[in-house]
Amino acid sequence: MEKNITLRLRFYTVANKPMDVVLHEFEKLKSEIEPDYKIKISDHHIWLSLGILKREKYSPHLHLQLERMEDGNTAVNGLYGPDPVLWTLFIFLHFLVAVFFFIAGVSAYSKASLGQPFKIEIIIMTTMIMAWFLLYYMARKNRKKGIPEMHQLQSLMERIIH
C-alpha cells in the first residue's frame, strides 16, 4: 500500500493470511485496544475508528472489506471516510445550498423575463456560491486535521494485515 494516504483514501492490499485468521486477529485486537480504538466486525467487513474519548468531529473511520483469494490469501479493500453523522450534515447543507441557488435562479429568470429587477436573486445566488466554497473549504480543513488519525488507523490495520 502506498504510504501517502492523504492522496489515496481508497486502497487495495493483500494479507498473506487466510481471511478467517485475519478476522480472528482483529477480534483479538478488539479487546486489547479498547477504549482507545473501536473495531466493529460484521461478516467480512471491519470498521476501525477512534474510541469515543479520543474522537473529534473530524476523526476519520477506516472500512476494510476482506475477500478470499484463490491462493489462500486475503484481498483487503480499504476506504477512509468521515464520521457518518458529519457526512450526512455536509450533504444536507450542500442540498440546501443547491435548492436555494435553484430557486433564486428560477426567480431571477422569471423576473428578467417580466422585465422586473432581480438584484436580490443575484445576491442570493452569489451568496450560495460562496456558501458552497465555504463548505468545500471546511471539508478540506477537516480532512487535513484527520490525517494524523488516519495514520493511527493505518498502523493499527497494518499490525494485523502485514
UniProtKB/TrEMBL annotation:
The chain crosses the membrane at residues 85-110, 122-139. Keywords: Membrane, Transmembrane, Transmembrane helix. It comes from the Bacteria. This is GTP-binding protein. It comes from Flavobacterium profundi. The lineage of its organism: Bacteria, Pseudomonadati, Bacteroidota, Flavobacteriia, Flavobacteriales.
